[in-house]
Amino acid sequence: MDEPITERTPQGIAAEINRIKQQTCKIMLTNALEVGKRLKEAKALLPHGEWGKWLVESVSYSQRTANRLMQLFEE
Prior knowledge:
This protein has helices at residues 10-45, 51-59, 63-74. By secondary structure, the protein is mostly helical. The chain has one domain.
C-alpha cells in the first residue's frame, strides 16, 4: 500500500527544526555535565600547578571554560 503524500509546509518544517534544536540542547547539556565531571576528576589527580598546562595540551580548554563546565556539573 502506498502512503498518502503529505504536503510539506513552512510551519511543519519549522516544527521539525524546533524539535531538533530542543533535542540538541538536551544532548549538549548532558555532555557539558559529563565533561565538567571529568575535568573535576582530572584536576584532583594533577599535581599542583599542572592544571593550566594540562588543559591547554590535553583538551584545548581555557581555565575559564573548564571552570564554567565544572561549576555547571557541581550545580
